[in-house]
Amino acid sequence: MNKIHNIMTVIDYIEENLSDKLNLYNISQAVGYSKYHLHRMFADTIGISIHDYVQRRKLTEAAKLLVFSQKPILEISLVAGYESQQAFSKIFKQMYKQTPNEYRNNQNFYPLQLRFQFNKEIKHLTSQDIQKKIHLASLSDIPAWMNLVHLIIDGFPNLDKTKYMQTLEKYIDQKRAFILKEEDLAIGVMLMNEETGSIDFFGVHPLYHKYGIMEAFINKLRNELIPDIDITITTFRLGDKADTGYRKLYKDLGFIEDELLIEFNYPTQKLRLTKQEESYYE
């Protein structure tokens, strides 16, 4: 059995028992792996721990109930696996930046984590492969692009799928959307504005996060598209518990902290890669 199949077995079990008490020990017992092996395998493949995946999935389903049902918050708390409404409300606000009551009143559902699913084993990519395969996206790439967005939704709080699709089509028409694909699988995607230097959306398939794909996209911007201006991107603020590691990824690429922002009613921070950082990619 390959690693991808093993991970999907674990995810299937989690999804089938999402309303039950789930932790590393009882999941490992159910799927037949040691908890230490399971922890390493899951985090290495998906990019977050089983604990974080389960918590984010439970809170996403709870958020859905808050918006689309009339269930009392206490009942939703229990369904999400919390022993009290107070405990549920505390973690919900940490992740969603709103209390459950505020979230329900706003009637604007967005997921922290959708079910993680993929059907293909990863293929080895060389840096030369990556550089050659980044190209302008077309309308025919939208299904593969949106499949990737589904996987990396954790990096984009408050993302509205309908509005995002409209934006994506506009950027494709303006030749500001770039994609890296392996057959019909989108591995990396980027929306950018060459006039302002802003990266307006940037995502890499979790199974390929160790292949230097983020560096390759930044390299393309710096060397080919916008060599003479700073590059900016917005991400989670320092200490945001909803961040699964995106801020660190950008900081590791050489981005530095810039202004604090509020985007779509969510606190974020702009990060900046200055021209002086160009040598980092040479």
From TrEMBL:
UniProt domain N-acetyltransferase: residue ranges: 134-278
InterPro entries in alphabetical order: Acyl_CoA_acyltransferase (IPR016181), GNAT_dom (IPR000182), Homeodomain-like_sf (IPR009057), HTH_AraC (IPR018060), HTH_AraC-typ_CS (IPR018062), MarA-like (IPR050959), Tscrpt_reg_AraC-type_HTH (IPR020449)
Electron transport among keywords: no
UniProt cross-references to PROSITE patterns, sorted A to Z: GNAT, HTH_ARAC_FAMILY_1, HTH_ARAC_FAMILY_2
A Pfam family matched in the record: HTH_18
Sorted UniProt keywords: DNA-binding, Transcription, Transcription regulation
Signal peptide as annotated in the record: none
Domain HTH araC/xylS-type: 8-106
MF terms (GO), sorted A to Z: acyltransferase activity, transferring groups other than amino-acyl groups; DNA-binding transcription factor activity; sequence-specific DNA binding
Name used for this protein in its record: AraC-family transcriptional regulator
